[in-house]
Design a protein that fits this description.
Radius of gyration: 18 Å
Number of domains: 2
Distance between the termini: 51 Å
CATH superfamily of the largest domain: Response regulator
Number of strands: 12
Strand content: 15-25%
CATH class of the largest domain: Alpha Beta
CATH topology of the largest domain: Rossmann fold
Oligomer: single chain
Shape: elongated
Helix content: 40-55%
Amino acid sequence: MAKRVLLIEDDQDTLELLAATLKREGFECATAGTGHEGLARERTQTPHLVILDLMLPDTDGFDVCRQIRTHSTVPIVMVTGRDDLIDRVVGFEVGADDYLVKPFGTQEFIARVNALLRRAEEYAHPRREVHVLDFGEVRVDQDRHEVVVRGESTHFTRKEFELLVCLAENEGRVMRSSDLLKRVWDYDDNIRSRTLDVHIGRVRSKIERQPSEPSIIVTVPCIGYKFVSPLSAA
């Protein structure tokens, strides 16, 4: 069955190009020219992926992304002509999974789409050999995609969960920022290190007793991060 992609974009030329590219690759493609129309289509058509323009005539992509995230974990790729770092940071903070700056090639576009859909499929259908990572204060159940922090189930977005698992599976080992970016986002370079920093901060806010003085996810200057089991510090 073809994957459904919702394309929310007000520029007609870009809309037609991306829609044609997606259909050529075998995707079903629904389109919307405004944020409100896009939200309505997302609710009724339950897409497997959303391509979301940042600048829309009636609202902005940040607000649309926030509203989608209140009820759905559908992968969202934010697309914009602005290359400001703050826009990227805000995009990831409101729940976007990836960020593309115009102009971009259709090959890169399709590669990003396929990578996000592949990860979403792995998230929804974990491998049977996946196990529970139990560190006392923090318990990560990969089968259920559940994180229990000091006895309470805590909500994690898909990327936050993948990042925590990647670190926890390598407990005690320093993970390079470039390796984390590659494994969690499929990025081949460290240009988007701010993406990682934002997500590290969000994970820390959910598992650390004092996020400003982290003892579980520790920064290793100029290299990356290390997961330290709370049990080892007990």
